[in-house]
Amino acid sequence: MNNRSFGYNYGSILRQVSLEVNSHLEEFTLKYLRETGPTTGTKLFGIIKVTFPSLTEVEFADLISRLADSGQAELYDETERIDSFLEYLTLERTGWYHVSVTISLLTLVIVYLVPSDSPLVFLRWAFGLLFVLFIPGYVMVEALLPSTGSLRGLERYAVSVGASLVLDMLVGLLLNYTPWGIGLIPILVSLAAFSVCAASVALVRKFVAIRTDRASSPGSI
Fold first, then answer.
1. Which CA distances in Å does 48 have to 29, 38, 77, 118?
2. How far apart are CA 71 and CA 93, in angstroms?
3. Do 140 and 181 belong to one domain?
4. pTM of the predicted structure, to 2 decimals
5. Most-buried pick from 63, 115, 130, 185 (CB within 10 A)?
6. Are residues 96 and 61 in the same domain?
7. Range of 124's domain?
8. Total structural domains in the chain?
9. Residue among 104, 103, 88, 73 nearest 203 (CA)
10. Is residue 95 domain-shared with residue 11, that is, in the same domain?
């Protein structure tokens, strides 16, 4: 009876210790990624190994898998080669750019072609709200913070909405002192132009950051 109790308690202690170690590992890894931004698996394993010498490659793989599954980290293919800007444009990770630019331009077309009394007016509302309340702020955040290390997940989206509202008011204020004045079309055209320019700046900054990281870290993308 005593031996069985001891075995049960010993197993519970081991599980508790394992959970605490995993928690410390996750906190350390996330803190490092927030401070440094994207990195390679090899480099990250070496950094963690210094603080947690007993960490094995299997445990490291399990750690990264847990963080990715929970949405706290993003994984990219390290074997992916980026030799030119045009090749970078075709990668899945640049989908945010294509979507942002497409929504910006589609919104202009829909608002211009679909009258307010049309059965398709819901398209004006859907694209208009998404564009005005999210896209300008999102691309601005991407341009200012090309690395997701300092701001990621829901925090990044929340800041994007807030930034969009500020930009909407700023654009309206500036248009008030122009010959075009504050109108639907001038506001949408101004926001669309800003969004496309900011998205392009963000795309270039991300490409430069990736090339720089690959040059400084063998095997990085």
1. 7, 15, 20, 59
2. 16
3. yes
4. 0.63
5. 63
6. no
7. 85-216
8. 2
9. 88
10. no
